[in-house]
Amino acid sequence: APPAGCSAQARPCFAVEGPGSDLVCFTVSGSGGAARDPGGSGSPEPRCFVPAPGRCYSLCVPAAPSVPAARLHRRLQQALRQGPFGSCRVLGLLRYSAPGAQAAPEKGFLIQDPQGSPETERALEELLRGQGELPLGVYEAGERGELWQCLWALRGAGGRELLRRARVVAAEEPPLHPAVAGLRHAAVFHSLEAARSVVEQCTSLIPEATAVLDLVDKCPKHSKKGDFPVIVIEGLDATGKTTVTQSVKDSLNALLLRSPPACVSPWRKTFDDEPTLIRRAFYALGNYIVASEIAKASTESPVVVDRYWHSTAAYAIATEISGKVQNLPPTHHEVYQWPEDLLKPDLVLLLTVSPEERIRRLQGRGLEKTEEETELEANSLFRQKVEESYKRMENPGCQEVDASPSREEVLMTVLHLIKKHCGSL
Ligand SMILES: Nc1ncnc2c1ncn2[C@@H]1O[C@H](COP(=O)(O)OP(=O)(O)O)[C@@H](O)[C@H]1O
Ligand SMILES: Nc1ccn([C@@H]2O[C@H](COP(=O)(O)OP(=O)(O)O)[C@@H](O)[C@H]2O)c(=O)n1
After folding, report:
1. Which residues form the Thymidylate kinase-like domain (predicted)?
2. Which ligand is nearest to the CA of 311?
3. CA distance 287 to 282
């Protein structure tokens, strides 16, 4: 059943994504006229996101996931971090049509200005006029304390026109996080063609995109694995992948490969700075390039691979789905399935260590130690989501290895598992 306030008339629903916290969902109801209680008896209004006495605004990037929309979202995100918005709190906002709908949500922002300064509103209008005249949502309290959303179309030369004034009504959190519907379109690519077409759209904007496509197109399609075993080692940063893959390589006389492959590493930084859609398409293509390397190498020796498709998918899912682990797509969801056109390994081992041990190893490696508590908390949720996504991967799934013991013990366990699954080497 649709949640309260989100009726079959496909009213827009909105979900506000606080860092690490629950989603706040609301919808809008009716327009103009006197205040009434559209949600029936006493549905609580999502007032919590409007700072009193401050003001609150929203904006969304329309259109399905596409390179121009993703880049527009990124430009807005960067602009909202600066200048007149410095004192505002900017939260992620998703606009979705109905719970359970297959369409990707629109992505946007909720901007809370605790001072309620007119300067913020002027600056937002100016920003949106310069970016394709996106409408601006302005939230205001009515006489009886109810909440209204005014949607303004911004016209050239300072004009604006009221498109709609509607009551804001709380909605239940949908059964699936609204970003889940967008994963297959915007972050987790299940075919070479899907990832390729995103990078192809970038060639006029990102010169490196052409070089990546050239490499991909040189690889034989649908590469087949050779007779030697192919073992992938996965895990969060600092769980010991580099250590384990090196030792396995030495012990088995294997070839060591990694994803993304060395041939695309010069462009990695460029793509890491791009929005999710483009960044994830780049890593997806990296996997197809590695696949052709695996195919070739596995005709001659065992192959051990440091990260592969499971990393690409798990990180993409965990970054796109805000908040708690329970927000992840349910087990057996299509995003956890291996792409049909990508070479499959024989065995995938997932290294896990306790959060404490992982921090010790990161510190041992000399990385930054002090982080703000909220960041740590958000970070810990993120890690949990990556790890849980890894565990939900299927066909092939990941076999978990406790990587907390000594290097020697971990290697023994790993070699034992390889022997068990891949026979004598
Ligand atoms: N089993 C282990 N016990 C203790 N320290 C380890 C173990 N395995 C790796 N380390 C250390 O932890 C750090 C992270 O390991 P590394 O192999 O670089 O992880 P990753 O490649 O997954 O980021 C390194 O300093 C490494 O020497
Ligand atoms: N096959 C891969 C490998 C990395 N990645 C991305 O790269 C990041 C980790 O790469 P890394 O090289 O820092 O990891 P380590 O192996 O150094 O721990 C992850 O955040 C993923 O977003 C990916 O998407 N797909």
Report:
1. 233-410
2. 2
3. 9
